[in-house]
Amino acid sequence: MSSISILGIYVADLAFFGKSIPVAGETLIGENYVIGPGGKGSNQAVAAAKAGAKTYFISKIGDDQFGSMATKIYDEAGVDYSKLIISSKHATGAAGILVDQQSGKNAINVVPGAAGALTNEDIDKASDIIKNSEVFLTQLEAPKEVVFYSLKMAHDNSVTTILNPAPAASIDKHIYPLIDYFTPNETEASFYVNHTVENESDAKKASDQFLEWGIKNIIITMGEKGAFFANKEEQFHVPIINLQNPVV
């Protein structure tokens, strides 16, 4: 069975649904709210495990109610969380999500909590998992210095690396050659190349820049416009599946 190690954060999502998203100073009566699992890395770990991969999740949560929600989900999905640190000094992170029910648009405020306290020493304790994985996946929600330290560890041990650069944040140029797959969306890609990425032509231009910086494979996701793939051998655009109903 293929194995994947994922470094990221878990937060409890508190989602509030209403007819619109309030602006500063405005109070609205909402329609509904739900509390569920969040954090890009955590969600990716659950998805990978459900897809059949042996999946390890590396992070830090608090010894609290939200943290217990996380471990219950991992037990149900089959995620190996033996390298997940449960801290008595930090609270599990949370995200406040305001959702416009009519359009599906949202506004999010994420507080990483315990996961924001991850250190390189924590990664060293999980190094056996990273070094022996076939794939290492991470994002930019955890502390950047920890993310970059982990990418180098994986790269130096010939593990295929994937960086999902979300939320977009500056990346030191020497990190780019450590990345086998770079998966920004169009907004994140625009952040890195300093020009707007809105169509296939823009995505090709951005991908050429990423390749020049040393990244091996680029996948730019563009919502309803599909995705664009590029490496030094080939480049192509993949349209979305034509569904009968709109996706919200």
Give a verbal description of the structure.
28% of the residues lie in helices and 30% in strands. It is built from seven helices and 13 strands. Strand 4, helix 2 (65-77) and strand 5 form a beta-alpha-beta unit. The chain has helices at 40-50, 65-77, 120-125, 127-131, 144-156, 186-193, 200-213; strands spanning 3-7, 11-18, 32-38, 54-62, 84-87, 92-100, 106-113, 135-139, 160-164, 181-182, 217-221, 227-230, 235-238. The chain starts with a strand and ends in a 10-residue tail after the last strand. A nine-stranded mixed sheet has the order 5-4-1-8-9-10-11-12-13, with helices on both faces. Strands 3-2-6-7 form a four-stranded mixed sheet. The mean pLDDT is 94. It has 248 residues and is of the alpha/beta class.
Q: Compute the number of strand runs.
A: 13
Instruction: Summarize model confidence as the mean pLDDT.
Output: 94
Basic shape: globular
- Uncertain regions spanning at least 5 consecutive residues: none
Biggest sheet statistics: 9 strands, mixed
The SSE order reads EEEHEHEEEHHEHEEHHEEE
Query: Tally the helices: what do you get?
Result: 7
Radius of gyration: 19 Å
Within the largest sheet, what's the order of strands? 5-4-1-8-9-10-11-12-13
> What structural class do the secondary elements suggest?
alpha/beta
β-strand amount:
25-35%
How much helix, percentage-wise, in residues? Answer: 25-40%
CA-to-CA gap between the ends?
Answer: 34 Å
